[in-house]
Write a structure and sequence with these properties.
Blueprint (H helix, E strand, L loop, with lengths): L3 H4 L5 E4 L2 H7 L4 H11 L1 H12 L5 E3 L7 H6 L6 H10 L8 E6 L11 H18 L6 E4 L5 H12 L5 E4 L17 E2 L2 E5 L6 H13 L4 E5 L3 H11 L6
Parallel strand pairs: 1-2, 1-8, 2-3, 3-4, 4-5, 5-6, 7-8
């Protein structure tokens, strides 16, 4: 298995993260009952993760629930955080996952960018996640869904206080603002995230994937698609060198 840091700026890699979408589409309320599902019916989650693994994607997201302390509290599961993180990781053990990733969600705590205590509270949300998965077989963190620059900076700082693993995030929402700094390395903002629901056909998806790969994207991730779409992208761009 190639080290993910070593592969940065070399190979175009596909990220599979269909499991959460599939479970939500099946009617599960993961924000309210995700911890209970992991405890009582882990095979339901595992089946969805296996579908992602079978796409052939080099990177697979291992968790379907938000591990921020504030999110765990809403599920009455903060005391079970270690157990739940172990379940999430165990689902990919003994399977051919090149690079297991943990998805990091934006904290739902109120954020005041002018208040130091508020900023520290947010950094601690992400520091908690990095501590939770420290020492576990995880190759990096996918910071997905961030639309607030300060929130993203808090996540990068909080994770970096504990972990030196690859941080993958999309900075396209922030224009030309300088989000990434040397302090956050090794990290990659060269990720192309595109929404399949906004595309008319699989051919459009594949054309977009090629375009993104040709213009220097390190990672490709498609939203709102079943695993077959991820598999198609992976087959098309496998072995593609980063431009």
């Amino acid at each position: 298995m190639a080290d993910l840091d070593f592969r940065l700026n070399r190979d175009v890699l596909t990220i599979a993260e269909n499991a959460r979408c599939a479970l939500l589409s099946a009617g599960l309320d993961l924000d309210a009952d995700g911890a209970l599902t992991l405890n009582i019916e882990p095979e339901v989650v595992q089946d969805a993760i296996i579908a992602d693994i079978n796409t052939g994607a080099q990177c697979v997201v291992t968790n379907v629930i938000d591990f921020c302390p504030s999110a765990l509290r809403k599920m009455n599961a903060l005391k079970e955080a270690e157990h739940l993180s172990n379940i999430s990781i165990e689902m990919t053990q003994n399977m051919r996952v090149q690079h297991p990733l943990v998805r990091v969600f934006p904290s739902k705590l109120p954020l005041d960018h002018t208040n130091k205590n508020s900023l520290n509270e947010h950094c601690d949300e992400y520091k908690f996640i990095a501590k939770l998965f420290a020492g576990k077989p995880v190759d990096g963190y996918l910071l997905h869904g961030f639309t607030n620059e300060t929130e993203l900076k808090c996540a990068l700082i909080g994770l970096r206080k504990v972990s030196a693993k690859t941080l993958i995030f999309d900075k396209s929402n922030f224009g030309e603002s300088e989000i990434i700094a040397a302090d956050y390395q090794p990290a990659s903002s060269n990720i192309a995230i595109f929404d399949y629901e906004k595309m008319a056909h699989i051919d459009e998806l594949l054309d977009t994937a090629i375009q993104k790969a040709e213009t220097g994207a390190q990672f490709l991730l498609v939203n709102n698609a079943n695993p077959s779409k991820t598999a198609a992208i992976c087959a098309l761009t496998k072995g593609w060198p980063v431009q």
